[in-house]
UniProtKB/TrEMBL annotation:
<dbReference type="Pfam" id="PF04290">
    <property type="entry name" value="DctQ"/>
</dbReference>
<dbReference type="GO" id="GO:0005886">
    <property type="term" value="C:plasma membrane"/>
</dbReference>
<comment type="subunit">
    <text>The complex comprises the extracytoplasmic solute receptor protein and the two transmembrane proteins.</text>
</comment>
<feature type="domain" description="Tripartite ATP-independent periplasmic transporters DctQ component">
    <location>
        <begin position="20"/>
        <end position="153"/>
    </location>
</feature>
<keyword id="KW-0472">Membrane</keyword>
<keyword id="KW-1133">Transmembrane helix</keyword>
<keyword id="KW-1003">Cell membrane</keyword>
<feature type="transmembrane region" description="Helical">
    <location>
        <begin position="46"/>
        <end position="63"/>
    </location>
</feature>
<comment type="similarity">
    <text>Belongs to the TRAP transporter small permease family.</text>
</comment>
<keyword id="KW-0813">Transport</keyword>
<protein>
    <recommendedName>
        <fullName>TRAP transporter small permease protein</fullName>
    </recommendedName>
</protein>
<comment type="function">
    <text>Part of the tripartite ATP-independent periplasmic (TRAP) transport system.</text>
</comment>
<dbReference type="InterPro" id="IPR055348">
    <property type="entry name" value="DctQ"/>
</dbReference>
<keyword id="KW-0812">Transmembrane</keyword>
<dbReference type="InterPro" id="IPR007387">
    <property type="entry name" value="TRAP_DctQ"/>
</dbReference>
<feature type="transmembrane region" description="Helical">
    <location>
        <begin position="12"/>
        <end position="34"/>
    </location>
</feature>
<dbReference type="GO" id="GO:0022857">
    <property type="term" value="F:transmembrane transporter activity"/>
</dbReference>
Amino acid sequence: MIDRINTTTANLVRWLALFMVLIQFAIVMGRYVFGVNSIAAQESVLYLHATLFMLGAGYTLLVDKHVRVDVFYAKASPATRRRIDIFGHLFLLLPSMAALLYWSWPSVRNSWKILEGPLSVGGIEAVFLMKTLIPAFCILVMLQSVSVLIRLLSQRAPS
């Protein structure tokens, strides 16, 4: 079920990449061909980019395409890789996501309380929505981490 949540989310947000390209193209054409500029259009690319990456992170973990910084992982045996993955999820990923969720929540709550406005004059009046991506990111990644852990712990340890 968790995998399905992140797969569905990814299938929805992947279209944002196309919208980002189209909007950026329109911004460049507007600015350099027609001499027209829009702060809101520029910010919309930022909002789309943030949404794409924050909501797509859980899916990236699902398909195991995230960045690995463990230099020993590539040459490790399957059993060692499994132990590294379990350790990473239990002691690094889940605690860091829980800390980020905990420490970002007051900022998100306050942003909603005042319906925080644009980043720049003439920008999109929805910073509160962009800040909401932080807890959404944390929850989706934590859920996917639990799903991966369940799979790792239910496997027989390779020899």
